[in-house]
Amino acid sequence: MEIWRHRPSNLQRTAVCPSWMQIAIQLPEPGESAAASEGKLLHEAIAERSTDGLSADQIEMYEWCLTELAKAGFDAPQHEVAMALELDPPLPVITGTADVVQDTPTATKILDWKTGWVAPPSPEDNLQLGAYAAMTWQKYGKPVEATMVMPRLKRVETYTFTQLESVVSYISLLLQKTMRLRGEGVMELKPSADCRYCPVKNICPAISAGSMLQETDASVLTADNAATVYAQLNMIAKKAKDEMSKVKAFVKRNPDCEGIAIKTSPGRGTFRDSDETYSILSAYMTHKEIMEHVSFGFSSLRDAFATKYAASHSVTKKEGTRQFFEAVKTQLERKQQEKIECR
Ligand code: SF4
Questions:
Q1: Residue 192: DSSP 8-state
Q2: Poorest-confidence range of 105-114, 152-161, 235-244, 306-315?
Q3: How far apart are CA 273 and CA 302, in angstroms?
Q4: Residue 190 covered by a domain
Q5: Residue 284 domain flag
Q6: Do 25 and 69 share a structural domain?
Q7: 114 plus 65 within the same structural domain
Q8: Peptide bond preceding 105: is omega within 30 degrees of 0, i.e. cis?
Q9: Of 12, 38, 8, 13, nearest to 24 (Cα)?
């Protein structure tokens, strides 16, 4: 029941938002997303060296992945290897499946396929990959050369983990903290860009506090709720500060502001594809639907999204439109800020 929450893929969220598991504990394990299903299909195709059931686009990725697998030196790969990270009790055992593993006399090589449109953190900063490296180290006792292959982005990154005791200690400290907070009945929720992908975002009080305050004015303040509203405002101020830091870092890295994906002006908007926006919308719409509507502009995309959302969630189209803006809000705000900074 608890184990899905302790997967390597959830550790990064635990590092940023230590109490998300306290909410997740109330929910059953979420189903597989369309993106995860496609990733799994591709992994299986590579393991079995078969393109049966793949589209032309997927076959192109499959072939590119096989080339990169060979280039990375995997001449006798084992695919889909079950792994476990043993931590000192009472911490849980973390389990996962490494995409590809190959043991060599001096090091063990692992490879992780990343089939999304958004680049994950580099291997050395990637806690999911760090956890797989730690599991591999516990099993084979050697340094771990970890490679991340991103077929959609045509990118490959490799890092050799040597200080794996430190990775195990760091993960242990993270889990100790979440258990301590839970034992004390304290919730430490920290909204971030990752909230979009969080399986508990629909019932998270940190998120609903933000939505509630957007629709609230000072006239509803009472002596009884002032403290709660103050706490919620603090949470929102912190979130805004985090977003501003990200914008500043982005602008610093992109002094000419190349790559702006969405421009807005009062009453109007234009949309151009970008990895991040594509990723947000692809959680709700197929590639074909997005591309059809992108070519007609922002309002067409918005309406298509709203109609689809309304039908699939049995809500009004107005609510679907609200959800669209919610989905792209961070992106819009960030891009608007980039425009300001770039003047
Ligand atoms: S939605 Fe965000 S703030 Fe809420 S639990 Fe998930 S990661 Fe934390």
A1: -
A2: 235-244
A3: 14
A4: no
A5: yes
A6: yes
A7: yes
A8: no
A9: 13
What phi and psi values does residue 90 have, to the nearest 5 degrees?
-90, 15
Contact at 8 Å (CB) between 256 and 233? no
Q: Are residues 168 and 297 in the same domain?
A: no
Ligand 1: lining residues by beta carbon, under 6 Å? 13, 17, 20, 23, 189-191, 194-195, 198, 200-201, 204, 206-207
User: What pairs with residue 160 in β-bridges?
Assistant: 145
What is the 8-class DSSP label of residue 120? P
Which residue, judged by its Cα, is nearest atom 2 of ligand 1? Answer: 195
> At CA 324, angle to CA 321 and CA 329, rounded to 5?
125
Query: What is the 8-class DSSP label of residue 204?
Result: -
- Residue whose pair of structure tokens reads 């969220």 in the numeric block: 13
Q: Are 309 and 320 in contact (CB under 8 A)?
A: yes
- Kindly state the tokens that stand for 183: 């034992």
**Calpha distance 327→324 (Å, rounded):** 5
CATH code assigned at 147: 3.90.320
What's the average model confidence in pLDDT over 114-143?
91
Closest-CA residue, ligand 1 atom 1, reads 201
Rounded-to-integer distance, Cα 22 and Cα 198, Å: 13
Q: The pTM is what?
A: 0.62
Confidence of residue 251 (pLDDT cuts 50, 70, 90): very low
CA of 213 to the centre of ligand 1 (A): 17
Which domain range does residue 56 map to? 3-183
* Centre of ligand 1 from the C-alpha of residue 155, in Å: 29
Mean of pLDDT values over 215-220: 52
